[in-house]
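I have a small job for you when you get a moment. Can you supply me with one protein entry, sequence and fold together? It will help me judge whether the discrete encoding reads sensibly. Write everything out right here, beneath this request:
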Amino acid sequence: MIAITELTVNTDDLEEIMRIMGPYWKVIYSDTNMDVKGNGERIGYLYDGRIIEFTGLAAEADPIRLEPENKTDEWIPILTWWRSPYLVSFKAGQFEFVMLAVHI
């Protein structure tokens, strides 16, 4: 299993690598970050489907938010990430686990 950061909108190169590696290799990746500072990048996981199975859970982490003084206002994040950490759940045999990758 390989976590990939700075995976761009265009996945042609990744698809070529997967073709070379063979039909058992799978990939799952997050949405791209459309913010200017995010460079349209995403995070992904490349894994051997003969050994590892995606369980269906994938999510981006959100930063902690503070409750506003005025209950009608929006909750405000106390920090921001240009690229959100990406969590994905996998299974290998009877072992289930969650991988978290972050671009720091």
